[in-house]
Every structure is written in C-alpha cells, then in structure tokens.
Amino acid sequence: MTRELELDTRVFAAGIKIQKLPQDLLSRFTRLHFAPYTEQEFIEVSQRVLTTRENTSLENAEYIAQA
To answer: Residue range 35-62: average pLDDT?
Structure first.
C-alpha cells in the first residue's frame, strides 16, 4: 500500500557565498540581495530589539549597540 501526501512547504536558506553550490540546487531558490545596514541603522535596530524583545533598559541598549 502506498500513500501520498502533498504539503504546502517552503524552504528558506541564507548564505554569504553561493559560488560552490550546484546550479541544480540554486535553480530551486529565488535569490534576494539586501544592502547592508548603515552604522546608524544598525544602532537603531539593535536598540529597538534589545528594549522591546529583551526588556533591556535604553541606557544598556545604547551601550551595547555602540560596542
């Protein structure tokens, strides 16, 4: 007896270098390229994450983001 099941599945992958991946594998993904954060954007995002998700004080979040 054989059963088949169809799933609505998505696979996400991230990487820095894709040159060594086989073309057959690469053809299955949509490539998205994102510009790097500016230093100011990084500081703002870091502070927001630390204060909202980690319940860090703003003073400590500013210190950590600048480190």
So the answer is: 96
